[in-house]
Amino acid sequence: MGVCMGIWVVQFARRLQKIIVRYQSLDSINVSTGFLAHQIRKVSKALKQSYEELVQQLPTEEHLHVDETGAKKNGKKHWTWCFRSHRFTLFHIDSSRGSSVLEAFLGREYSGTLSCDFFGAYRKFARLSSASLQYCWSHLIREVKYLAESVITSLAVKNCLHSCSLAW
Fold first, then answer.
1. In DSSP terms, which residues pair with 58 in a beta bridge?
2. pLDDT tens by residue, 124-161
3. Strand-pair category, 76-84 with 63-73
4. Do residues 94 and 81 touch, judged by C-beta distance below 8 A?
5. Kind of pairing, strands 132-135 and 89-94?
6. What does the alpha-carbon distance between residue 45 and residue 22 come to, in Å, rounded to a whole number?
7. Rounded to an integer, what distance in angstroms lies between the CA atom of residue 102 and that of residue 8?
8. What pTM, to 2 d.p., does this model score?
9. For the chain, what is the radius of gyration of the CA atoms?
10. What is the Cα–Cα distance from 163 to 142, expressed in whole angstroms?
11. What's the CA gap between 144 and 150, in Å, rounded?
């Protein structure tokens, strides 16, 4: 039951009502939000050591895909950071969206490659560390399309962008 709980907590982003409905769909098991909160604490405690081991492994990874997304926690803005290597994915919730999170998890000694968007925290971290940045293709293509469609972009730049896009 704990394994199912752990998977559903991630799948339903801790929306307890959705987890209750899932339990009810399995042999009509009735559970309360208090029971679910207790189960979440148990699963979190059981996974704490494994999580800490992955945190220690992050700075040794040669290439990481990193992204962050905002959400409110108790009415205050927090950020869910996602660090993905070729072997594992690690999530971290923080009140900061800044480069300090990258520094805390990777350290200034980090010399690998971060695949990321154009957010300034990544550029600042690259200046503070030995990391190199590899910008996400979907973000890059979106920026190129914006430039190509922009009324302020010169005709010469638009022709260049169009020629480049034909090469892709």
1. none
2. 999 999 999 998 888 888 887 887 777 665 666 666 65
3. antiparallel
4. yes
5. unpaired
6. 23
7. 28
8. 0.73
9. 21
10. 16
11. 10
